[in-house]
Amino acid sequence: MPRFRKYILVSGLVGLLSHQVLADTQILLDDGTRIDISNGISVMSRVGETQSMVFNSQTRVMNIVDHSEGSYTPVSMQKIEESVATISSFRDSMLLKMQAQLKTLPTEQRQVFDDAMRQYLPADTQGALQLKTVSKGNEVIAGISCSMQSLYDNKQHIADVCMSIKASGGLTKEDQVTLLAMMKFFKEMASKTAGLMASLEAPKLLSKTQLEGWPVKFVDLQNGTQYAVKSVARHAYSPEYFTGHLKYQRKEMPTLQGVQQ
Fold first, then answer.
1. Is 17 left (phi over 0), alpha (psi -120 to 50) or beta?
2. pTM
3. How confident is residue 2, by pLDDT bands cut at 50, 70 and 90?
4. Which of 47, 117, 216, 231 makes an SS bond possible with 146, Cβ 3.0 to 4.6 Å?
5. Of 90, 148, 147, 145, residue with least CA distance to 120
6. Is 235 left (phi over 0), alpha (psi -120 to 50) or beta?
7. How far is CA 182 from the centre of its chain?
8. What is the Cα–Cα distance from 39 to 54, expressed in whole angstroms?
9. What is the distance, to the nearest Å, from the Cα of residue 158 to the centroid of all Cα atoms in its chain?
10. What is the per-residue pLDDT across 80-123, written as a single tens digit (0 to 9) for each?
């Protein structure tokens, strides 16, 4: 009997320790993207790539990590605003020079150049385009409950997205808070950089809507970009996995200060 009690005690401790060790979350997407979450920090990586993004939901700083180079670049909203202001100033000075040179061209050719430059204007200059959203009901994807929405630019159906608002499936409330903070950061980044960061397709479109949550599934009907969560699982990671890159060489976001002179 004492031996049996000892067995039960040991088994209970093993189960408890296992639960504590598997305190982290791994989200896999069907496009090869992986999101790992622990204590408010998320690591986004992709199969076959040596770069990753590490986002701290408390400090709202995203480190762009290059593992092959052994470096990381901190990105904050303040840094983004400063960089965009610098680029905009440089662009404006170049536009003034170009406009002076283009005066000698026929009207049609000047229009071609004007249209080509519009894609690089910041969002506040172009005007905040608001997309119409139409609810398509609720879905469950990889165990995560989400609200399916269709996005329209005027009458053109341009995208479908399924937004997760509350924790569900294998996600904890803490995971959801981290994902929502990361998505908010991406949306702000996309809205401020406009055409300067074309890789932020989903955040760029979502920043033009009033939708809340983070996209469990996204389909861009204009360029064919699409992805969806395919699995959520508990994992055990060493703290080094989320902070080890801080031992790398720190770099700063590039600027155009030297170019403007």
1. alpha
2. 0.75
3. low
4. 216
5. 90
6. beta
7. 6
8. 12
9. 20
10. 877 666 666 556 666 666 666 666 767 777 677 666 665 555 54
